[in-house]
Amino acid sequence: EVQLVESGGGLVQPGGSLRLSCAASGITVSSNLMTWVRQAPGKGLEWVSLIYSDGYTYYTDSVKGRFTISRHDSRNTLYLQMNSLRPEDTAVYYCAGAINSGWTFDCWGQGTLVTVSS
Amino acid sequence: EVVLTQSPATLSLSPGEGATLSCRASQSVDNYLAWYQQKPGQAPRLLIYDASKRATGVPARFSGSGSGTDFTLTIRSLEPEDFAVYHCQQRGNWPFTFGPGTKVDI
After folding, report:
1. Chain B, nearest residue to A103 by Cα
2. Probe site for chain A from B3, B4, B49 (most A CB atoms < 10 A)
C-alpha cells in the first residue's frame, strides 16, 4: 500500500523557519514526480513546489528564495525547508506523488498544519 | 499563469440526481486537466486526469470531457458520499494551478 505521512508542522513566529517531512512507503520518492501543495484555512488549493525524478525543481513565485524542496533517497523522504515565514504562509501543507496517473498527483498525505503568528 | 474558473460555485442537488461541473482555463492547457474531490478535513482525491481518464478505483459514474480551455466533470446519479468540493487543476503550464472549487451539497 502506498502511503505518504507528513510531519513537522506547528506554530512559528513571522520570520521563522520550519522543515516539513513527508515519509513515503510503497513508492520510491526519488523515482517519482513529487510535490507540496498548501491550503489556507477555508481557502482553495495552491501549488507550492515540485521535484522531478531527475532533481529539477519548480517553485511558485510567492515562495521563491524562501522555500526549498529536497529529498533524502536512503530515507525515502521528501522535505520542504521553509524560511522567512510570513502569516500568509499559514496553511495545511500536503505532499503528493504522481504514481499511476501520468504526471498527475494520485497519492496524497494527510497534511500538516503550519501556523505563522506572533 | 493559467487561471481556472469553475462554475457554478455551489450546486445543490439530491442523491440520485446528475451533476455537471464546469472548468474553464484562461488559455489552452491541451488535455492536461485533472479533477479532484475533497471532503472536509481530508486530502484531495484524484478522480480524473488528462481530461477524461479515470484514476484507479474511481467509480464509473464519474466522467470527464473537454480539451483546450473548456472542461466538464459529470457525475451520473449522485451517491451520498459524492457530496464534497470538486477542484479542477491544470498541468499544461507552470505554475500548475487549481480552480477555486465547486461545492456539491444537498
Report:
1. B91
2. B49
Angstrom CA distances, A49 to B2, B12, B27, B37, B61, stand at 16, 34, 22, 21, 32
How many interchain CB pairs under 8 A, A with B?
Answer: 58
Cα–Cα distance for residue pair A21/A33, rounded to 1 Å: 16
Model confidence pLDDT, tens digit, residues A88-109? 999 999 999 999 888 899 999 9
Q: In the prediction, which pLDDT does A102 show? A: 82
Within 36-75 of A, beta carbons closer than 8 Å to B belong to 37, 44-47, 50, 58, 60-61
Residue A108 in contact with partner chain B when CB distance is under 8 A: yes
- Specify the amino acid at residue A103: W
Residues ≥6 apart with Cβ < 8 Å to A74: none
